[in-house]
Amino acid sequence: MKKKSYIIISICCLIAFGIGVYIYFQEYLLLKNETLILEYGETTSLKLEDLLELKDINKERKEDILAHTIINTDFENEEAKDYPAVGEYNVSLTYFREQKKMKIKVEDTIKPKIIKPQHIQVLAEETLDEKTLLSYFKVQDLAPSKVTFDFSQYNHQKSGLQNIQVIAIDQNGNETKEDYTIETLSKPDLSRYKVETVIEKDKTGNISNVKIKMTEKKVVLDVKIYSHHSVGASRGCDPVALYQAMKYKGYCQNIGLRAFIDDMPRSNSNPYKGFAGNPNGPDDPDVLEAIFPSSMVPWAKKYGRVEDFSGHSVDDIIEEIRKGNPVMVYTTYNFKLPKWKNWTFGRMYSNLHCLTISGFDIETQQIRYTDAGGNRESSWVSFAKFKKSYDYKKFAIVVK
Predict the structure, then answer these.
(1) What's the rounded Cα separation, in Å, for the pair 348 and 343?
(2) Cα-flanking dihedrals φ and ψ of residue 313, to 5°?
(3) Which terminus in the chain has less CB density within 10 A, N or C?
(4) What is the Cα–Cα distance from 174 to 143, expressed in whole angstroms?
(5) What average pLDDT does the chain have?
């Protein structure tokens, strides 16, 4: 009997020992991957749920593993970034006596993205400045990148569309190559033209277009002078200044100056409704002998293409001259200070005079004007002096 009991006890001890050994050596830390691969720029928090296979472990054991497993690693984010640098990192997981090791590899496999302008213009006969060209391009990449160019197919002596190659490479060896077309313009006569590079940007601040703007430094329109005094209209500088501009554009071929003046709308005392007073004189101190654009333009349209240009700047006037369109303007007489006066129609200076703007010179900063009541030749005045006089009212009419 004692022998049988001994055998039973021995068997129980062996079973208990076996269970103990099983429990001692059982693995609870089951890695999902021995090596975790991340793309450069990805973030990870090293959560145990992401590293261990826990779906086949009972709830109690799972909670114990999550509570007592210790993570040791050299894994860390780059300075001022929320993701790690490219490289290999070690991770050690310890759950009581059990320990597992794994690696994290951060790889950069994404090529740089080149952000380029839609269009670039340059001048022929000038070598492409690589430093300037670099400023037009950007690279979108998490790693530091460098842009270079291949000009082997580009001929700076030739005008037209030509290709260069843009090459972007990041510090991890990823490379992008793209062909890019540049428009090469024939170089103008620099003594006649001012050349500027105009850079346009999109809403995000990236360069969208690089254009070459070539503007004539000096333009003179051969506007013929017609004297209002020659037809007895001593107060008629307004209609004659417009007549000069219209004749230059080829209008009013079948109407003489006197008939043109006589045909304009009239008003007793309101230049906004027609010519106030008598264009032939004598001077009436209570009436401003003039006609303003609001009443002149609708009438003049029957003779040609005219537009009320009031409110536009001196630069806008210059641009119209550049297009070959003379502009009639309202200024003070001889560009003097205005003599303001209150009239029945409102406030206006009494020393009003009208001129035909017929040219400009960018280098000398002068405006050319043709005066129907002055010299028999057109004259020049500085931009600053003209602007000051014109800006008092900014009344103008353009003939196209």
Answers:
(1) 7
(2) -85, 170
(3) N
(4) 10
(5) 92
> What tokens were used for 354?
């009208």
95 in Cβ contact with 28 (< 8 Å):
yes
Enumerate long-range contacts of 169-172, CB under 8 Å, 24 or more apart: 169/112, 169/145, 170/108, 170/112, 170/139, 170/141, 170/143, 170/144, 170/145, 170/146, 171/143, 171/144, 171/145, 172/40, 172/86, 172/108, 172/143
**Both 229 and 363 in a single domain?**
yes
Stretch 293-313: mean pLDDT: 98
Q: Which helix (H) or strand (E) holds 116?
A: none
Work out how many domains the chain is built from and give that number.
3
Q: To which residue do tokens 């843009």 refer? A: 166
Angle in degrees, 0-180, between the axes of helices 314-322 and 383-390, rounded to the nearest 10 = 120
Q: Domain range spanning residue 291?
A: 220-399
pLDDT in tens, 204-226: 999 999 999 998 999 999 999 99
Residues 103 and 169 in one domain: no
| Buried-exposed string 376-397: b where 16+ CB fall within 10 A, e elsewhere | eebeebebeebbbbbebbbbbb
Q: Provide the whole-model pTM.
A: 0.65
| SS3 state of residue 311 | coil
Residue 170's Cβ-side half-sphere holds a number of Cα atoms within 13 Å equal to 20
Tokens of 183: 């428009």
